[in-house]
Every structure is written in C-alpha cells, then in structure tokens.
Amino acid sequence: MRLKPRVLLGSFDQPRAKSLWTQLSKSSTTTLLGISGLLWLLLYLYLRLTSYRDPTSYFFDEISGYERRYSLQREREAHNFVRSANNTRNEPIKSTGEPSMCVGVATIARPAGHQYVRGTIGSLLEGLSTEDRQTIYLMPFIAHTKPAQHPIYKEPWLTALSDRVLQYDATGEELVRLQQFEEGRHWRNKSMYDYGYLLEKCHDTGAAWIAMIEDDVLARDGWYTRSREALQDLARTSPSDQWVYLRMFYTEALLGWNSEEWPRYFGWSFTTFLVLFAILVGARARYPRLQRQVSNLNVVIACAVVLPSFIILYFMAGRVTVQPFSKGIHRMDRFGCCSQGFVFPRAVVPQLVARTKKAMNEDYYIDMLLERWADAEALERYVLTPSLLQHVGDKSSKGWGYDANAVTTWNFGFEDHPP
Length: 419
Known about the structure:
Helices cover 46% and strands 12% of the residues. By secondary structure, the protein is α/β, with parallel strands linked by helices. A seven-stranded mixed β-sheet has the order 4-3-5-9-7-10-8, sandwiched between helices. A two-stranded antiparallel sheet has the order 1-2. Strands 6-11 form a two-stranded antiparallel ribbon. Strand 1 and strand 2 form a beta hairpin. Helix 2 (27-50) runs parallel beside helix 12 (296-317). The radius of gyration is 29 Å and the shape is elongated.
C-alpha cells in the first residue's frame, strides 16, 4: 500500500527511516551547528574582555571591576584645591544673593586617617566658574554636639570655602537626646535627625534646589552644570510636587536581572522562540528550495539548542552590558541605592523634614524613608546618568559591621569618565 506524503513543519516529507546520526551528518545541520558554535564562542570571549566591569555579568572581575581610574584623578584635584585654600590670601568666592542651590554636607569624625570630607567638598568646588560658585550656598554640617571632635573643625579651608559651617543649635532636652544618640551609637536615629536638620537649614536659604551630599563621595568635573540642566528639564516636564528627587549616585550592582521581573524575561525569550520558529517554518512553506537546508532537524536544533544557548549568553553578559542606560535623565522608582547624593525640589522639603522628625525613632535609614514615602504617594524618582558622584568611603559612618557594604557601594561607570 502506498503511503500519502505528510506535512511536517511547512514542508512535504516522505516517511523515511533514518537514524539521528545520519541526519546529523547532513551538511546543512553540521554547518548550522558549526557556525553557531563558533559565533557563540567568539561572543563568549568578547564578553570576557568587555564585561569584566559589569557587576551584573557572569564575567565580572572584582579586582579589575573596582579599580579606581577617574576617581583617583578627581581625588587629587579635590585635595589640591583644598590645600590651595589653606595657603592663599585671596578672598574665596562665595554665594551672592539668593542661591539657586543649597548644598548640604553632613559630616562626622571617622576612624583616624579616614576623613573623606576634604575630597568631597574639594570636588564639589573645583572646576566651578565664578558665576556658578556664586549661585551655590555651601553648608557643611559638623554633626557633633562637641564640634571640636571632628578633625576638620579648626582647619582654615573649611570656613574659607563654606558659606556657612553649620552646627547644632539644640538646647535642653533636644541636646540631651542628641548626646544620648552619640553615646549609645544610635546612628540610624541620629542620622535621621541630622538629615532633617540640615534640610531645614538649607531650605531657609531660599534656594530653589537642595542637594544633600554624604561626606565620603567625589563629584565629577562639571557636576553642577549637568545637574542644573537636568533640573531645568524636569521643571519643564514634571511639576515639582509630583517627584521627590534627582538621584546623583546609584550603583549598577542592583540593576541586574532582578527576580521581580522574571515573567518579563521569560515572555521576551518565549516570544523570540516563537518568532524564530515562525520564520523558519514560513520560509520552508514559501520557498520549497529551502526545504533541504531548513530541514525538520535543523528547525528543532535552531529553536531548541542554538537559540537557548544565545539567550543564556545574553543573560550571562549582564544587564548593564546589554541594556545600558543612555546618557540623561531616567525614571528610577526601583532599585536605586543609596543616599550618597540627592537633589530635592524646594516644594517637597517641608514634607520631607516633617517625615524625618516622625521617623527619628524608627529603625531605618533616609533612603528607605524616601522610597516608602514615594511609593505611598506615587511620587516619581529620577536619576541622572552617568553618575555625578562616586562613593569612595571604605569606612562606614554607620559604625562597625558596615564596612563591607561601604566598599561595594560603587558606581562603575563613574570611573570611565575621560580624564
């Protein structure tokens, strides 16, 4: 009895008894496996050379990844600027009139030899034009009830470069509570108080924007121009009562393939599979001469072996490598870290100060308070890329036990800034 031909994957195939080895020996199958395997290997080697500084990548190398490049240069420039302020007799440039931005830097004494605040303030000021410096109100805050405990308190450059060196004005029970925070090493409670206190004092200057900078960061050259341009863009597109902050620092380590988004990753992978399958089957049906090259086995190998291997390599490459942020302003309502630097619109500061006072006895940090508030009120959060700040502190201000986290709080893209 003669069998009728049957349709398989878009082609007419006569039933034949062939072993798997015989089919694999066909030139089209061998070519498919050979070319795809070679291409996969070349991409693997390429990614080893290019993704070693991507913390979300399989190829990430900690030794090379955390290598200081631009930050070392910027640190030298910052310290030279501070030293020159100690040695010059020229009157330093300060804010004139109502400032555009108040820059608050709360600082506490860290273990001997680990004071980063000189580099922080130096990098914020070095490279500014006279006109730009006159629109900034710089307010370092010596966050000690006894300010002389901080090594920089009596250094000449501090008063020479600052518009105001802020200290506590607390008295009575409030002062006693601050002293208890210090003696009991209740850093979370005290940092919440300090943040609200400095925010309020910056708000009192009348500045349209309030930047809150931690004392262990470096600012890249041109940070003020870029942040001002970004803030002007935001002012045109988003009412100031609809967003909380412009983030000046983030770490790429939290921007990887997050488990919360796995349904989306699976959906795109499966969609890619369906598209490839449809293209191959459709091509066979439309162009009969392709039936030998695009055999049933080749379709299976392409969709079930080759494609999954490249999808796996895509995820191995790392999200920062394959889906990098473009330069400019981006929404970052999730996965932002940490509190190294924010710019707040003036409109939200009174509410934020009130929330810091309420949260002063709670067990969490300012960045957690900001995210909870923004989530509850559906407020937008933005980030400016590349990062304007680099975190260089390897001795945490939060006390013993946090140094490991401090070292890895790092923006890798910052180091690529051209010297």
